[in-house]
Q: What sequence folds into this?
């Protein structure tokens, strides 16, 4: 029954993408709930309000860090899903595990925003990033073993995906290890790693961009 | 007017899927709100924070259980929708009833997380699972009676879907009945049933997977 | 430039549908936040918890009423969008006004759940339904005037849509007027009107269902 | 590898649109949480409830203003995405920055609703609008430089988009500057600018509507 099979499975990748976009959208928007509006009792002048907003700067940094975390893994998952010709139930469940880790991001962000100087909070945040990386790696390796990749995917994509996840997680782990000096160093290191992946796409992402550069010589 | 009819109804299945993905996404993300960040007043050291996080373990188990509940019914509904050629208003309303039960999952999860030792809370959670199963069963049997299934759906799919829902609900009912000994036994049993459906897809789901196994001998 | 125009506008109906599905999904899921889990302090036995849950029955009725309200207007909007060949900016803004009324449903539901015996709360809820009906009516009449309907839409659809909205709003207004006797009568009347539209689709919706009945003689 | 490239990138615009619709939907629905239901303790009669609701009028104005803000930028982003033939990672990240500014709208709306007479709150709200405008401008100019626009996009679209964003931001800046007299003047000015863009589409949006007017002489 190849026609039944193809239709069912093809539909699945679409709905997996739709569920993922929904969960990423809600998780990103929930992050803003950590930016709590000051209470009216604490504010008696423009000066008070200004100072309370400035005091929110660390929370804003953590908000932006989590938006970048979610952005990086959204781009990563999207790139994987775009290479899949079809899905099966196992792949759906691996992605549900991934999305479960996405759902935890607002919790670990809240925890870090509230306890920014505590290594435990930073450890939970880092563990969340590890979970995201592991499930995404699991998704890719399962899809490859189960022959779910699209036919046109060239051989060099596989080592590029593996290298990318391994290097990124190694950098995150080094950043998290800095918390034994100070959690602020860790946060700075994680933000720098993220900015590197968000802004400088030429680093170890070459395989994917090469095709684009060929088609768009100006980019 | 078959062209008007087909276009309208075909569109409906898509939008039903989109609404469902949205509701599942929001419901899954709301579950994390039960994992409440400890208050700053209660924490004076890394040790305090660590202990408060360890004390959240039962809440985390219930969070994971509910993610699995939603995952199972998301996969189940997706499989049904993929077999429908078109929808009508009755089917839309059956699925709105199903989605209403999905919306209740964050409530019954919260209730169980707060009152984990109370049989009443466990009964509400179980009743929610029953509602999800009943509406999904209703959707399938209505779609079959109203000739909404796609043409290619083989005859053996129907008994497989029925068997699957009936056996799963029977297992959930047995698990819930264990609450007369202890609610912890019930939760463990429900989690085991869920892990069985999430990880071991070979059990009573044979009809659907057979086609896949044929196409992907390695999976 | 008909090709540019068609592509842009065609895309618009899809994204309007996607935004709508998202807003309906979030609004439906937020409704459950009114079902507040009892506090642990108030519960000392299974008996307490059971009584507190039974005392939530009116809130549950209002939750179900609002799910039906959103369901009815979701089906209504979906039916309209399915008949549109394309959208323009005015139509997009009319639907943003409609979606703004959808966003208000969790507020007016909360208000009614908290102040179930107050005519003011019931008036706000009814006004919300009126806003939903008005914007949906406006959408249809604008789309017809601006020639945005698909070519295949038969002439008898227009009076059917108008009749449907006018009769439904007249019934809601009668239901709301019953609040001068008791708000409970009003709620009962509104729920009955909604059940009529959700379950008995043969009433004044004939034009749409006739095509379906012809194609599916058994339904 | 043009086929791989096209499929991947084409998918990206779709998923960018899906993520955006999700975030706009959640952000719009979260706005309603600022309309807080009065507490039961404060209400002893219909009269009390009515007065408390009337006292919420400024919050309702700010709610409507933010729905319009989000509506304007949703229409703007949709129009841009409809003109893109494909996306790349840089464009995805520019849109994640845009969506991050969208996520901040519920925060700055809350802040303004709570501190409506404070220039600092109005400044934060205006800064949020500036961020939305800047990222949208950045998206368009990057897409143009990187040759991501669809082939059929006529040359006059570019200056129209630029003019539109520059004029709108200039009007918002003038409105915000009125806060040195009174924040109420600023809010009124911003609402008027928004109503102009929402209702009177003929102003500096001519290029886009011309094609529509040609096709639909009656609109």
A:
């Amino acid at each position: 029954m190849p026609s039944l099979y193809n239709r069912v499975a093809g539909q699945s990748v679409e709905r997996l993408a739709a569920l993922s976009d929904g969960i990423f959208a809600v998780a990103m928007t929930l992050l803003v709930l950590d930016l709590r509006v000051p209470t009216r009792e604490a504010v008696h002048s423009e000066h008070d309000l200004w100072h309370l907003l400035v005091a929110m700067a660390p929370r804003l940094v953590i908000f932006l860090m989590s938006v970048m975390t979610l952005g990086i893994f959204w781009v990563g998952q999207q790139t994987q899903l775009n290479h899949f010709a079809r899905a099966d139930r196992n792949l759906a469940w691996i992605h549900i595990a991934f999305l479960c880790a996405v759902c935890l991001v607002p919790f670990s962000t809240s925890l870090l925003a509230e306890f920014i100087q505590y290594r435990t909070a930073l450890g939970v945040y880092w563990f969340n990033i590890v979970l995201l990386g592991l499930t995404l790696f699991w998704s890719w390796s399962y899809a490859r073993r189960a022959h779910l990749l699209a036919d046109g995917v060239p051989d060099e994509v596989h080592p590029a995906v593996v290298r990318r996840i391994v290097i990124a997680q190694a950098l995150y782990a080094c950043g998290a290890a800095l918390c034994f000096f100070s959690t602020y160093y860790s946060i700075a290191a994680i933000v720098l790693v993220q900015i590197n992946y968000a802004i400088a796409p030429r680093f170890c992402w070459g395989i994917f961009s090469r095709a684009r550069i060929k088609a768009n010589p100006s980019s």
In short: Helices of chain C lie at 2-31, 46-54, 57-83, 89-114, 119-145, 157-177, 183-199, 206-215. Chain C has eight helices and no strands. Chain C has one domain: 2-215.
